[in-house]
Design a protein that fits this description.
Blueprint: H1 3-21, H2 42-50, H3 54-65, E1 68-73, E2 76-81, H4 84-92, E3 98-101, H5 104-110, H6 120-134, H7 136-139, H8 143-158, E4 163-165, H9 166-182, H10 189-203, H11 216-243, H12 253-258, H13 271-302, H14 304-320, H15 328-332, H16 335-347, E5 353-358, E6 362-364, E7 367-369, E8 374-378, H17 379-383, H18 424-441, E9 442-446, E10 453-455, E11 459-461, E12 466-471
Parallel strand pairs: 2-8
Antiparallel strand pairs: 1-2, 3-5, 4-12, 5-8, 6-7, 9-12, 10-11
Helix pairs in contact: 2-3, 5-11, 8-9, 8-18, 9-13, 10-11, 11-13, 13-16, 13-18, 14-16
Bound molecules: protoporphyrin IX containing FE.
């Protein structure tokens, strides 16, 4: 071997050595700062939510760091992603890689078996059971019940008043509708006690999980225990009534869940699961629909042309409906009203986004997102993207004339994929029935034009959204 060959051989050997012993390059995390230990960006995030400047806050992040960035929220390293492909990624990601994520207090209050805490087959089974009640074919038969609730509400809280505070009233209304359909409980003392319990329970959902006397979390746990005892009692009552055939599985959500799995025991729900999920549904449906209806009332108080068009549509239905109560077919005719509701959801999604927990390391857009981190998505970032919704700050219900023309994973007020809101049809029915009776019976104007709101995490109007109402001659 001459000197040149020796040299080449030496070079090959050393390259081979370096190739074999080279350490894997460090994992690349997305750009962004983690801020101060533990606190991270939590305080500025909460401040932006409270002052309703979260959109600007998120926009600043994306202009500084791009579409994927890291930060630290609630003591956990977090990745913020947004846009159509990010939404698609989150909503369709394997449940073993990205799991649903709620603050620790949430699980303690709602129970370990509530649907939002479940993953994989367990999630599918429990979700399937709830959907059997929340699907349109089932809800069709409850339109009359919702109609009665809305009419009672309007008689009791709107007629005879000159001013009403819309937000608290809409919460009472959505609670009453749910207590009728979910618990099978009509108006009266029990309902009043239940709404108080629910509110106490919900006050602690976002609190620090410190179970000491007089903490918010402690009050919330106590309310949750009382509510659970109440639901357990209802379960026993329904079981007895179903056995004696004095009630059927269509009576309410509890009866429906008890009827599942008669022929297929593997999909049966335990009593504990029913309790946790009844509570979960109450929480999920309470603030969301009431917020949507409040925003609609606000819009109709500000935009005369939209109000007039909705009145025209609803009065035509009022004149042509075949029975005193609204029917499923009447709701199908409320096309313009629902487009206005969708546009309202686009511009003001009640749920701004949510968190997912990283259960396994994964790669996204060339970055490694490690196990134990959390991922946050935000609906408003796609809803206000001019490349998807042209002139996004303009209120234009015509965008929803052809729903198929909206690209997938771009309108995400109800989420998407395996966890898409199973209550969207329920929300549609209660919203349409409520707007029908409000616009056919009243005109209104806002008492304060600057009715700004904060987010906690749902929108809250500082004046409760006070309006002056004038009854129409019916
Ligand atoms: C305008 C009204 C509503 C809006 C905007 C809304 C929005 C959402 C969103 C965005 C999600 C997905 C959250 C995520 O992916 O992390 C969700 C989930 C959920 N919603 Fe709704 N919701 C509404 C009304 C309702 C109602 C009325 C009910 C029940 C009657 C309900 C029950 C649920 C449940 C149980 C989940 C959890 C689903 C799962 O984890 O698989 N929602 N909702």
């Amino acid at each position: 071997m001459d000197l040149t060959n020796c040299f080449i051989f030496f070079l090959l050997l050393t390259s081979l050595y370096f190739a074999l012993t080279r350490k894997t390059p460090p994992k690349k995390h997305p750009p962004g700062s983690m801020g101060f230990p533990l606190i991270g960006q939590t305080l500025s995030f909460l401040h932006a939510m409270r002052t309703n400047s979260i959109e600007q806050w998120l926009l600043q992040r994306t202009s500084k760091y791009g579409p994927v960035s890291k930060l630290s929220l609630f003591g956990t390293p977090t990745v913020f992603v947004h846009g159509q492909s990010a939404n698609k990624f989150i909503f369709t990601c394997d449940g073993n890689v990205l799991g649903n994520h709620q603050p620790p207090s949430f699980k303690r209050i709602c129970g370990e078996r509530n649907m939002t805490a479940l993953i994989g087959d367990d999630h599918k089974r429990v979700r399937g059971a709830l959907v059997s009640f929340l699907k349109p074919e089932m809800l069709k038969q409850y339109v009359g019940k919702m109609d009665e609730e809305v009419r009672n509400h309007v008689e009791m809280h709107w007629h005879g008043n000159q001013k009403v505070m819309v937000m608290p009233l809409m919460k009472t209304l959505t609670f009453n509708i749910m207590s009728s359909l979910i618990f099978g409980i009509g108006k009266g003392e029990t309902r009043n006690n239940l709404i108080e319990l629910l509110q106490h329970m919900m006050n602690g959902l976002m609190s620090l999980p410190i179970n000491l006397l007089f903490t918010r979390f402690n009050r919330s746990l106590k309310a949750s225990a009382q509510l659970r005892a109440f639901i357990k009692n209802l379960i026993s009552e329904r079981k007895a009534a179903l056995e004696q055939r004095v009630a059927d599985t269509r009576k309410d959500l509890i009866a429906c869940l008890l009827g599942i799995g008669k022929t297929e025991p593997s999909i049966r729900m335990s009593d504990e699961e029913i309790v946790d999920n009844v509570i979960g549904v109450m929480i999920a449906g309470y603030d969301t629909s009431s917020v949507l209806i409040t925003f609609l009332v606000r819009l109709l108080g500000m935009d005369r042309s939209v109000y007039d068009k909705i009145v025209q549509e609803q009065e035509k239905i009022a004149k042509t409906k075949t029975s005193e109560l609204l029917s499923w077919d009447d709701l199908a005719k409320m096309k313009y009203t629902w487009r206005v509701a969708m546009e309202t959801l686009r511009m003001n999604p009640p749920l701004l986004g949510s968190l997912r927990k990283v259960l396994k390391d994964f790669e996204y857009e060339g970055y490694t997102i490690p196990k134990g981190w959390q991922v946050i998505w935000a609906a408003n970032m796609t809803h206000m993207d001019g490349r998807i919704f042209s002139d996004p700050s303009k209120f234009d219900p015509a965008r929803f004339e052809k729903q198929a023309s909206i690209p997938p994973y771009c309108f995400v007020a109800f989420g998407g994929g395996a966890r898409i809101c199973p209550g969207n049809e329920f929300a549609r029915i209660e919203t349409l029935v409520t707007i029908h009776y409000l616009v056919t019976r009243f005109k209104w104007k806002l008492c304060c034009l600057d009715n700004s709101f904060s987010r906690n995490p749902f929108p809250v109007f500082s004046d409760g959204m006070l309006i002056e109402i004038e009854p129409k001659d019916c």
